[in-house]
Amino acid sequence: MLQIQCPYCGVRPESEFAYGGEAHIARPTDPSTLNDDQWAEFLYMRTNTKGVHAERWRHARGCNRFFNALRDTTSDRFLAFYRTGEPRPVLAGGKP
Amino acid sequence: MQRYSALSIFHRGLSGHESWRPQWRRAAPKAAYDAVIVGGGGHGLGTAYYLASVHGLTNIAVLEKGWVGGGNTGRNTTIIRSNYLFDESAALYNHALKLWEDLSQVLNYNVMYSARGVMMLAHNVHDVQVAKRHIHANRCNGVDNEWLTPEQAKEFCPPLNISDNIRYPVLGAALQRRGGTARHDAVAWGYARAADALGVDIIENCEVTGFRKDAHGAIEAVETSRGLITTRKVGVVAAGNTSAVMRLADVRLPLESFPLQALVSEPVKPAFPCVVMSNTIHAYISQSDKGELVIGAGTDAYTSYTQRGGLHINTHTLDAICELFPMFRRMQMLRNWGGIVDVTPDRSPIIAKTPVKGLYVNCGWGTGGFKATPGSAHVFAHTIANDEPHPINAPFNIERFRDGFLIDEAAAAAVAH
Amino acid sequence: MADTTPTRIPASLIDARRSPVVTRRDWLQPLAPRARFTLRGGADARRAAGAAFGLVLPEDACRSAATPTRAALWLGPDEQLLLGLETDTASIQEGLEQALRGIAHSLVDVSHRQTALEISGPHAEAILNGASPLDLSLSAFPVGMCTRTVFEKADVVLWRPRADTFHIEVWRSFTDYVSSLIAEIGREYYPGDGRAA
Amino acid sequence: MSAFRTATGGRIDRSRVIEFEFDGVRYTGLAGDTLASALLANGVHLMGRSFKYHRPRGVLGAGAEEPNALVGVWRDEARYTPNLRATTVELYAGLKAESQNRSPSLTVDKGSVNSLLSPFIPAGFYYKTFMWPKGAWKSLYEPAIREAAGLGRAPRLADPDRYGNRHAHCDVLVIGAGPAGIAAARAAAAAGASVILCDEQAEFGGSLLADPTAEIDGQPAAQWLAASLAELSAASRVTLLGRTTAFGYFPHNHVGLNQKLTDHLDKPAEGAIRERLWQVRASQVLIAQGAIERPLVFPGNDLPGILLASAARTYLNRYGVRVGEQIAVVTAHDAAYQTAFELKAAGAGIAVIADVRADVDAALLEQAAGLGITVRRAATVLGTTGKLRVTGLVLGSVSGEAVQAGDTIACDAVIMSGGFTPSVHLHSQSRGKLEWQPALGAFVPGEAAEATLSAGACRGVFGLAAVLNDGAAQGAAAATAAGHGAGVRTYQASEAARHGGGFLGALPQPGGKPGKKAFLDWQNDVTTRDIALAIREGFVSVEHVKRYTTNGMATDQGKTSNMNALALVAATLGKPIPECGLTTFRMPYTPVTFGSFAGYSRGDLFEPVRRTAIHDWAREHGAVFEDVGAWKRARYFPRGGEDMHEAVNRECIALRHGCGIFDASTLGKIEVVGPDAATFLERLYVNSWANLKVGRSRYGILCREDGFVYDDGVIARLAEDRFHVTTTTGGAARVYAFMEDYLQTEWQDLRVWLTSITEQYSVIAVQGPNARRVLEPLIEGVDLSATALPHMGVATGRILGVPMRLFRVSFTGELGFEVNVPADYGRAVWEAIFASGESHGIVPYGTEAMHVLRAEKGYIIVGQETDGTLTPDDAGLGWAIGRQKADFVGKRSLARASMQTADRKQLVGLRTVDPAVVLEEGAQIVDSPGQTPPMRLIGHVTSSYHSAVLGHSIALAVVRGGRARLGHTLYVPMPEGDIPVTVTSTVFYDADGARLHG
Prior knowledge:
Distance between the termini of chain B: 57 Å
Number of helices of chain B: 12
Number of strands of chain B: 19
Oligomer: heterotetramer
Low-confidence stretches of chain D: none
Mean pLDDT of chain D: 96
Radius of gyration of chain D: 38 Å
Largest sheet of chain B: 8 strands, mixed
Largest sheet of chain D: 7 strands, mixed
Helix content of chain B: 25-40%
Shape of chain D: elongated
């Protein structure tokens, strides 16, 4: 069970959270202007990063807030936690 | 190829087994191949075998970044069944099931396919409806699957707790008698040996690091940790690592990779005759030939490539097993392990051409790829050889996500009211 | 929004207003019915509501403010659980609605949505840790801390009003589960208690 | 007392004699014994049979590493536990144990024929045979193999014992309470850190328990141990957990511990917890698991009576047991000498010390000579004699590459040492790297992946003083890392044993060939020849060797075998050991009981049983319940011996002619409040909401972004800024999460807040032509007339004085109301309505009648008619879509060409040609009769019932291009033949809705 740092409540066990998939995939403001390929890209295509992954979590059984995290999917180590709407942090060493 | 039989073991046993040769050669990569398969698991090795045996393509190589069969092939719970709901799925998995039935003889390698029966439990009215829908659809598709009352289920699987004193009593079960298990390592090794015998190079410790495309964007070479390999056809069968490999060719896929854990108990004398699965209680169990209870459950919640997961997955899997089989409460977990399963949005695989000419992909098997191994390999080989999908895998294309023609086994099974 | 206080409820009905049955023990008690409101909104809503409620609603995460008869529990940056005496339900609601007029917010009566249990005594932490994965030591979970959290397979709000006492707010249909589970865990410490009825 | 028990010494309680049974024979032991030590004290070495060849086996070790002595233990039939290591089973009065994997008995085992056949059943033989005739694998070979395989037998009865669980946090978790662990725990505790110290054994002390002569800080080690433990016990922030194995290292310093609480007790208290799973989250994990002695690999090394030297020392010094009368020692390590000396002092004869090394410390040789013990250097072992017990050791001598045969030394026990393998299991489980230390011939922990430290022998530090000081230093470092600065203290210590030497692989044999029956993995019967065969057949990766030979895959997980096998692989391939790599260490460290993972979760605690406030009334009135998610819902209310169909028919007719009352409390309810609430619903649901008036409600449909129906429910507007949204029972939690997702991450501009009110209200549906008459007398402040409260009208008022939200809605097609009252009043209000309704023919009805009634009206149930692949239009709900809306969730997907095609599966009604035939739900549909598999399937039956009111069966189905097939005949192919059906409208009853608007 991972330990996750909710930006509001602090460090909590994973069982309080719901994983929300890849972060920074904004819903298009006007979906009707997208062609089917572009829409499928929004719906389904994911980077599935092997490495530093920006992802959403919701403190579903806590403060109920969505937030984002950077996690290395090759070690499951979290590298940053940040609130929804904030830009993806630049990690030390310039790794995006 | 050295034929395997009881007699050959006896003969060679008399001379201390000194005369056995390697089951497959330790090949070094050549500069060029007619086709290259990326991924030395069951699906990839099988693909190479069928390319060679069915399509006559023998100047081919299988590239494996680690050791053959070391990925999900060697990490799964070995369940084989074909009782899927949608016609497309039933056709694919049943194609595989037919190949399983004489795979040992075809490969001259005992893969220990054992049709012990796969029983899927229903615990509520919705489960019963879903099970019946499967059974009817399967019957009409020529796939065996039958309904058992709780008493019949208990007769088929004596350890099953069908009393009312459990949280979700068993209301019945769908049984596929032809379903069962096989020996996972043997599948990889058997295909490797048979492919090797047909001239296929199986190259371990060889990681793909890039693709080269020609002026028209078609594949012309694969860059590897062991040098450049020229080829016009590449089939990627890299399971959990597919996204990473395909990214090297700038192909994006609707995939996410999750950790999936499984475990075995200590070996005991025969105590469990079949495979039992429960979607509602979230667990599945069988007993291996060695005597271990083989148990699996759902994935961890998050994407990961670590091949490990949380303790809570184990507690939730085993409380389900103990609820259904309370006599196993004193059994002991011997070994737990993790794999990386690549999951598509509709939980059905992709076996298809890609936007890149000469590049083919076979992925997205999620938690259930082992059972499809021979069928998947067979139709993927067809796709690579002909540059056109086999009718069976035609629906399992990438475009279905754009066009909305999903083959949504998960949604069909798991919506509650 | 309707006034939710019964005006002429027959006595039999008032008696009926009881939480799901929990076997009473020295260390595990069901708490009496109480007034509960979920307030969601911004700091302006919290300021206004606090003034009417008679408390400064906590701005710090997972902290509470309390008087002998009322409490405000921070459940999220935009969510507070307000607790009061059952008999004050109507007056609390009126007061809050009046104070919040013109301020964007959501105030919802959840008095009957959940029940409350009190677990106390020297083993309270250990018993709770039979199902709660949180660090409940006083340094990590000090007096006054509150949080929504997971309790094995149920969601609860856990609040520590005193060092040796926790209150568990739980949705009513999970009360049986949570109280039975606590009783089951507690058997180790209170072997005579048996399992919850 | 037996001849093998020493007169004095050991940590057993000689005043407490304990009776026990092994294979039906009664023995006695002493309090403090393990089953293994007690049997050894009785001269019993033969304790088990191996997995494959059924070879007779004695104990090899004295602890968790034991591969041979596996036994079944039971107090009663329901508490039968197979495969326990006799070396870790603590003796209690009346213990019953039996050996395993033998038939009919341990001394005479039919299966031992496998040993004779061993030349013909080498590693992996089963992959090469049993293939003919096809089908024989399952019917013939597999059953035989299964019967022969397995170890013990599975328990047959439900386990009555209880299991517990505890989550815990600490600054420093110290795993292993030997000298390193204790020194570490003391250091961390002294610094103010909170500490959990666990050890798998009954007694803390580790190696100190078997070393009577060691001294620490000038006092005997036993005294130091007692004082240290007293100090730790007294410390308030230290938790000591004995009989507690750290079995698994999970991500983010989450460690699973298994604590055994009752297995050692004569009579566990009724209801006592047998085992507890500790789930520990530690800031720092300090591993002090020590090292495990390696056996030496030589022909015949598996006979009973051959065991590890360290085990013999433990049996002697901790349990007061000599493992034999005349003991031969084979060693490549100094420590075995001390064991020999101590055994000699305890009265055993030492037949020989055969040292593999040519160069041996002169002091040891001198000491041996002084005791009259012969030492052979540069020795090797060519074989052993004996059948059920070792009787002799065939020695050889090594000179360069040459091996000379030597003499046979008579003995009744052989103790051996190949040196010690640091226990890097947990470090490796945590994904920490391992480093090869050539000087030690061992892997030790390298770079950590988590906040992990190791101390003492498990990281290659040997010698008591060094181990203590390493423990103290690492303990202080762990405390510091956890935020408690600590100074480092040092210990003075002395011990008799020395710590030089070691050997990996197989002892040299004549001709450089692997000898016969030289075992690497005792339990799985893997020999040096199997390894050679695997490599010959091309299995050169260590993982392949492991899988092909099964080396290291037994219940001991290779604790004694992995390093020797690896060395053999490396030697055969001519590669350095570190280049061959090590197989992965997998959780658990030692086998862990399933029940301890399950903990309290069983029966009603397996998952919450959710009951409504009206549940008890329903139960008292004979309801039969069904599980819907975690809820219990009343399915039907049988009267006087009715079966379900009779009850449902009666309930339906009573409702359509009079009135029915239904508990709809489980439906999800969300209060959506805020100035932008209407805008929010407008964006989310497919329907229009802006134009919904206060006091009115509307049936809403929610799609996912992929355009498929996700949920549905009635949504009422209570105020301009307040909506009462209902969801399906199963959808409550996920719709709430879905809404929060859009609010928090996509539409942060909206001022809207959600509150779940599912459980705030009891929802009582009162349906039927008499519904108004039933409710009217009870209600205040609401005019129930059709004009004041028309269909889909919503009002607030009071019922019996209780505040109420009243919905004029119908899921039956009749005049209907849903009364929402605060849940604590639910039952009382229900009873009052029921009483009021008795003169109007009211009946309670359950979910089954509800399903029939709604199907008669063609109302869908999400999850039954829909399955995640149907669009609103497919489900016949296209009318609900707000056509003017620029966007809503799913709209773009619905615009794809594939969503518009005429052959999509569409919801239709079906009538069977024979009105008495009720189709089976899930049955498939074809458009021509007489098809054979594979058929062209065009749809399936989603709902099917007998309609008592209509007097015929009805069904809903999804059919390709269904709406264009209205009036067509289709076929439902069943095993008994095709059932012809006619495609109809989905509405079977009251098509113009007159009753609804009554």
